[in-house]
Automatic annotation (TrEMBL):
Protein name: S-acyltransferase
InterPro entries, alphabetized: Palmitoyltrfase_DHHC, PFA4/ZDH16/20/ERF2-like
Known EC number: 2.3.1.225
Domain commentary: The DHHC domain is required for palmitoyltransferase activity.
Cell location: Endomembrane system
Length: 287
């Protein structure tokens, strides 16, 4: 029996919506266990317990707001698509490669100077752009398609994705620390819900830690998950501008916005990589 891989890939989008519901369920259970079930009653007692619970609630809400904000941004933000007129503009600026673009009709991707050609989209591809079989389109600086967000992670939402990973792990470990610090005098029903929140967040955090470590390594070398195999055997990756500049290519140069899912207008105007169509290389920096 012939297997239709494209239909299978499209089915992963349905799985993604289930994952969104799972993330929402973990957040709701955690909120109920920490804020409503445990800290809420303590806030009315006054004294040390009230102050401690108030501090816990504030920290929890700050992390939760950043997590939800980053998650919504990475789910809803377009990672970047190739403009419809990009092929025409590219061929016009580079007439010597026009024939190469027109010749890519045999089912294989043909590389050209500064980009390539996608036979699925029948369009040119900017540098670092790749075709996603699930989204069925080319994505600018594509890193991977994430079922957790039902979206591709690319040039324009990679920062939001990384912030989601970081805040998820911080919130999960905060809840785990909170669970360990609580006494065990609660009722069986309370203890069961708190323990459920603890287990869910611990499992979620452990599953993301390795992923975050991997992406931290990719970020430090200005590489995507797709590009890892492309740089094998190279003495130096051409997009590796140094750790500081690599970080700024994703998070921007405005330090006050590094930990928020936002970009300043100056960064959007001055860092082409945030738009996903142009990327500085080592030769550009060293010149």
């Amino acid at each position: 029996m012939e297997i239709n891989l494209f239909r299978f890939c499209s089915g992963l989008r349905v799985l993604g919506y289930v994952m969104i519901l799972l993330v929402a369920a973990i957040i709701c259970v955690s909120y109920y266990a920490v804020v409503l079930l445990t800290c809420g009653p303590d806030l009315l007692r006054g004294g040390y317990h009230s102050f401690l619970s108030f501090t816990i609630v504030i920290i929890f809400h700050v992390l939760l707001i950043l997590l939800i904000w980053s998650y919504i941004r990475v789910v809803l933000k377009d990672p970047g698509s190739v403009p419809e007129n990009w092929t025409a503009a590219f061929a016009e600026e580079n007439p010597e490669v026009g024939s190469s673009l027109a010749a890519a009709e045999d089912g294989f991707e043909r590389r050209t100077r500064g980009g390539g050609y996608c036979t699925h989209c029948q369009n040119g591809k900017p540098p670092r752009c790749h075709h996603c079989s699930i989204c069925r389109r080319c994505v600018l600086k594509m890193d991977h398609h994430c079922v957790w967000v039902v979206n591709c992670v690319g040039a324009r939402n990679y920062k939001f994705f990384l912030l989601f990973l970081v805040t998820s792990i911080l919130l999960a470990y905060f809840i785990n620390f909170f669970h360990e610090a609580k006494n065990h005098s609660a009722s069986p029903a309370k203890s069961a819900i708190i323990f459920l929140a603890f287990v869910l967040n611990l499992a979620f955090a452990l599953s993301l830690v390795c992923f975050l470590v991997m992406h931290a390594s990719l970020l430090s070398s200005n590489t995507t998950s797709v590009e890892v195999h492309e740089k094998k055997g190279l003495a130096r990756w051409k997009y590796d501008l140094g750790r500081k500049k690599n970080f700024e290519q994703v998070f921007g140069m405005k330090k006050s916005l590094w930990f928020f899912p936002l970009f300043s207008e100056d960064d959007l105007d001055n860092i082409p990589a945030l738009h996903g169509l142009e990327f500085p290389t080592r030769s550009d920096v060293e010149a």
